Amino acid sequence: MASRVKTKSSKSKSRKDNMPKRNKKNFRPTKKGAGMTEAGVRAYRRKNPGSKLKTAVTKKKGLTKSEKARRKSFCARSAGQMKKFPKAAKDPNSRLRQARRRWRC
Fold first, then answer.
1. For burial by CB atoms within 10 Å, which of 2, 77, 94, 104 has the most?
2. Of the candidates 1, 5, 35, 33, which has an alpha carbon nearest to the alpha carbon of residue 20?
3. What is the full DSSP assignment across 18-83?
């Protein structure tokens, strides 16, 4: 009987392999609200076909129903992160707090 050699499937790739490079083009600095830029989202979607990743909902008025829902969802998730990481929650310059400010949470 011939033995088969198992190869790694695409599902076993680490998450870091699918992320774009962490540079000024793809990620915002902490002082400017943290998070991915439009170019970073495009790079991520190129590496991950079928992805629905979007940038932050930052506008104040004229939000669609889905944008309101995304903001509400992000704010709820990040509020959980504030509880889990109290040190970051206390620091006004942490990436978590800056991202929440950018999303208007």
1. 94
2. 35
3. GSPP-STTTB--GGGT-SB-HHHHHHHHHHSTT---------SS---HHHHHHHHHHHHHHHHHHH
The amino acid at residue 60 is K
Tokens read off for 26: 């793809």
Distance in angstroms (rounded) separating the CA atoms of residues 42 and 63: 22
Q: Give the pLDDT of the chain (105 residues) as one tens digit per residue.
A: 565 665 555 555 555 678 888 888 899 998 888 889 999 999 999 999 999 999 999 999 999 999 999 999 999 999 999 999 999 999 999 999 999 999 999
Cβ atoms 102, 95 nearer than 8 A: no
CA distance 88 to 82: 7
- pTM beyond 0.70: the answer is yes
Q: Can you say how many angstroms the Cα of residue 55 is from the centroid of all Cα atoms in its chain?
A: 8
Q: Which residue has the tokens 């076993």?
A: 12
